[in-house]
Amino acid sequence: MRDDLETGGAGGPVLRLERIERRYGDLIILQPSDFALKRSETVALLGPSGSGKSSLLHIAGLLEPPSGGEVYIDGRACSGLSDSQRTRLRRDALGFVYQFHHLLPEFSALDNVALPMLIAGRKKAEADREAARLLTALGLGGRLRHQPGQLSGGEQQRTAIARALANRPKILLADEPTGNLDPKTSDVVFDALLEVARAEGLAALIATHDQRLAARMDRVIEIRDQRLQPLRRPAQAPL
Known about the structure:
Shape: globular
CATH superfamily of the domain at 15-104 and 169-227: P-loop containing nucleotide triphosphate hydrolases
Mean pLDDT: 86
Distance between the termini: 21 Å
Protein name: Lipoprotein-releasing system ATP-binding protein
Low-confidence stretches: 6-10, 234-239
GO cellular component, one term: plasma membrane
CATH topology of the domain at 15-104 and 169-227: Rossmann fold
Strand content: 15-25%
Radius of gyration: 18 Å
Largest sheet: 6 strands, mixed
Organism: Amphiplicatus metriothermophilus
Domain ABC transporter: 15-239
Order of helices and strands: EEEHEEHEHHHEHEHEE
Helix content: 25-40%
Keywords: ATP-binding, Lipoprotein, Nucleotide-binding, Transport
């Protein structure tokens, strides 16, 4: 794994944070920091609770503005965008997975995943086919018609991952996506997330507190001393 914060691919990074900072009044959450995410790369974001991982993901996902700096998605500066332009960019380029699945309880797994595509204007038959494909890729081909209450916690979270991928985003942002699951289920869900992200060619920034899971990704960064920094690893013991 590479430890630098700045990395590029053909055509430049799909997500770039330039001198991003976050303050709440006098409280400093994140001092000016840079980060770049290339296409098809998976990056783990580590940091203790309250360190600013969620704030950073919200800024990267255009859900809240930074206190300073600029967010670039596919080379496009986002600070000057209108609300409608930001909404459209979030819909077309970004997928979000949270610790809690937030599925609609009265809808089936298939309908929960198809809904973002219907909102984006795709026909129902096409949306249903794509939803079934994603759910099957995540091991839920036999659970398409089940409502969230009929699914296990891991199945609900895999459904939420499929929903995040419904509109074929370029970037997947995940905030502790397995934090509410037991270790065995967490492994299953995390492996499924990485497998489908890589199969779909997604760039992914995934916040987690679990260094064991983080080690499975291409690169690891952490929020330390209020800045984004490469993970500081202990020296390896001699063989």
